[in-house]
Amino acid sequence: MKKSTIIYCLALISLFVSCSNFKDKTEVSNDDSLKAAKLAPKPVYDGIYRVEGDSVVIPSFEIEVELSPKAEAKIEKDKESIIVSASFSGIPIDPNSPNMQEWAEGGIAGKEIELMGQRVARFENIKVKKSTLDSVTGKDLELLINVYTGRRTNPDNLLDCGILSEKMAKVQNKKFVLKAKLIYGE
């Protein structure tokens, strides 16, 4: 073999080895793509809800229950709890839909939070099937908040409390204060 052929072969091998070790700066490793996916914003549905698979997540919000001094004393003395109940509803596109009866009884979704000692209920990570939301007119669900005692020590509700009835677009990521007093004795 000629010396020039050997040099040529060595040059080709050297070039091949250096090219295989070269990493293109535009290439993204699996770790980098996972980080990018975590940082990417979640898709938003109708400007209000975040999409997660076949569900949409209702935005979080807080309800603070502000008790009158007499109500606070009675609740503390009786070691009573306070229930903050959230109901989400919408008007079905098809009033004859099989969901109509179910919605008439309980709305599209609901959640209750029982408070013992604290006075702020944070509603978060409530999910509704996207198909359910697609079956109502105007995707801005109506929220209804009711507050009452947990009936741990008394069979009757002890509180007269205001309600909140508002569209989710106005409620999302906000805090609302509902004032309450005793039904009897104030």
Explain this structure to me?
The chain is of the alpha+beta class and 186 residues long. It has six helices and twelve strands. The strands form three sheets. It has a four-stranded antiparallel β-sheet with strand order 1-2-3-8. It has a four-stranded mixed β-sheet with strand order 7-4-12-10. It is elongated, with a radius of gyration of 30 Å. It starts with a helix and ends with a strand. The N terminus is likely disordered.
Care to give the gist of this entry?
By secondary structure, this protein is α+β, with helices and mostly antiparallel strands.
Topology of this structure?
Blueprint: H1 3-21, H2 30-39, E1 44-45, E2 49-52, E3 55-58, E4 61-67, H3 69-78, E5 82-89, H4 99-106, E6 109-115, E7 120-123, E8 126-129, H5 130-134, E9 142-149, E10 159-161, E11 164-167, H6 168-171, E12 175-182
Parallel strand pairs: 4-12
Antiparallel strand pairs: 1-2, 2-3, 3-8, 4-7, 5-6, 5-9, 9-11, 10-12
